[in-house]
Amino acid sequence: MNVAAIFDIGKTNKKVFLFNENYQIVWEKSVNLPETVDEDGFPCEDIAELRNWIVFRLSEMQELKEYILKAVNFSTYGASFIYVDEEGNSLTPLYNYLKPYPEALKKKFYDKYKGEEKFALKTASPVLGSLNSGMQIYRLKEENPELFAKVKYCLHLPQYLSSLLTGKYFADITSIGCHTNLWNFKKTKYHKWLKKENIADKIPRIHDAGHTINIIGDIAVGVGLHDSSSAIIPYMINFTEPFVLLSTGTWSISMNPFNDTPLTFDEMQYDCLCYLQYKEKPVKAARLFAGNEHEVQTKKLASHFGVPLDSYKEILFDKNIISKLRGINLKRYSSSDDKYKILRESPFEKRNLSDFKNYEITYHQLMLDIVAQQILSTNLVIHNSPVKKVFVDGGFSKNSIFMNLLAEAFPEMEVYAASMAQASALGAALAIHKNWNPKPIQNDLIDLKFYKH
Fold it and tell me: Where is the Carbohydrate kinase FGGY C-terminal domain positioned along the sequence (predicted)?
């Protein structure tokens, strides 16, 4: 059986899948690797451990008699650079994007390049410190110029992992175009600061995400993708009508590939950004820390009502509870002059749990508050675009209260809970489809459940 191996490298879980030609997963392994620390003692990915695990899994796959390995690709978390020398050896740890960024250095950078607002708008990158991966390169250059002089290439993580197999060095638009401070969205090219700081030559040329490099025995190796961009590929392939994808996990990210209106600075204040998908088209996206909020508040509820932590899984949408709560809360969301205030402050946080009769009613209130935030966040990317469908995947797609309230909030849209196995890994396999898979792509890769409003 012909298969493609996809390494899906998350910050916590590292997974590898074999997909057959019908894009079904036929084999998988996962691991949670221990972190190490960088020279400042800050936790970071142990790149040697990750390399060893990938090499070990590849040799294991090649021993499997029932599969013929035709292709390999990588989908990994973003905002992470590896710096390699002439021989391809890594020169530094894989610095953690959560590492605090020196304020003085940040000020020096933005003062030099027309200030935070102008720069952020040009690069569609909210000011996020180390999460703007280009700022990591700037930091290395400023803090350690001798080491920086030895750097041949700065590679985002997916391209570094790909280079381990191919010995070739490329950049990829999905990694570059995601809040990195590297790309000028207006001019669709690198921002000029890279030239001015003598960094441009250390970034390899961009390689199309659909192209592959052949290695021993004609295995097609992809150049790798940023996982958020990869996860939208199955939807782009299966649906031609304009849609928004609401991907829910720790973050709820509303992604609209059919909205190319320029980002405003106000939108950026509400956690809106643009990134580039694998066909180089901008995707407007808005982030909300909704999954994290759900986790924090359900712990409080469980402790207050003395019930098990996951009791919410048993609770189904109850129309009567919702209409009673709405009657009590009528002025709750409309009284504020700044309707976006609730994106920054959790409405539920201010509630007194003793005001509620039982766990079920309180949980409905929590979901009402989260969905009120979600509606505002998702509307930031729907505004002025021809979207008619909303697909929700991830944790909240299985939550009947969330899904029913969302469908009610968007009566002019079709709202679906979408499920598929491993969206970002599947996207990375589909991106290189033409180079390994002779079969046409089926149109049933995604299971949909429609929610009536």
Answer: 241-300, 383-431
